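SEQUENCE, STRUCTURE TOKENS:
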Amino acid sequence: QMTTLRITAGPYEFEARMGEEAAPKTCARFLTLLPYRERIIHVRWSGEGCWIPLGDLDLGLEYENHTSFPAPGDIIVYPGGISETEILLAYGGVRFASKVGQLAGNHFLTITKGRENLVALGKMTLWKGAQDILFERIG
């Protein structure tokens, strides 16, 4: 049984499935945060993505199922270290990076419904600023 989340971001609604087989610790940790409310802003270094900066928050995670090139609809978490802890949602081409260079984040969540609105969300965040985002478990 796959865990399913509803993500409401700006005016858009998405469904996503957790990748518990590939990133079990990251998924388990994120589930403890639900419902999770925050704001997303457009990335500075990584390309076509939106992110949630989390500063020096220690989620107690290490690398698992990590990538520097999340596909559109992939959500990754960077557990911290050489850059700040963050969550990133790719809506287009991404090479995950910070001011210190290329990073890798744990791919733990994949959008399965509403993908047609990813680019619109990304462009809205780029041109209109921060958008509210809510992650809720629905299955």
